[in-house]
Amino acid sequence: MGKHNALIHEAIDDVAVVIVDISNGGEVSAVTLDGDPQGTVTAVQDIPLGHKIAMKDIPAGKELIKYGRAIGKATTDIAKGQHVHTHNVKSQRWA
Question: How far apart are CA 40 and CA 76, in angstroms?
Fold first, then answer.
């Protein structure tokens, strides 16, 4: 397994979870839990350990995919490399 700093559950997921604090401009390289490389993005803002980063552009209103299934909807356009959290996603957990 190569150097990585984010984990992604399924190849179709829109987001990865960073496993270290990421600074704005830092390179984020994601792998699946099995160690399969899933791409690299540049963070466009600071992202704290354990938080999500967008691995692709996500338009407002799109269902956000994590674990291979929808976990919420983007409340605004989310750019590739952006921090993904409650400020730009409405969870489906309690909907």
Answer: 23
pTM given for the model: 0.92
| Residue 47, Ramachandran bin (φ over 0: left; ψ between -120 and 50: alpha; else beta) | beta
- Asked if 68 contacts 15 with a C-beta cutoff of 8 angstroms, the reply is no
Start-to-end C-alpha separation, the chain? 38
Q: Which amino acid does the sequence have at 89?
A: V
User: From CA 12, how far away is CA 75, in angstroms rounded?
Assistant: 20
Indicate if the pLDDT at residue 2 is higher than 60: no
Rounded distance between C-alpha atoms, residue 58 and residue 64, angstroms: 8
Please say whether the beta carbons of 60 and 51 come within 8 A. Answer: no
- Rounded CA gap, 71 and 93, in Å? 7
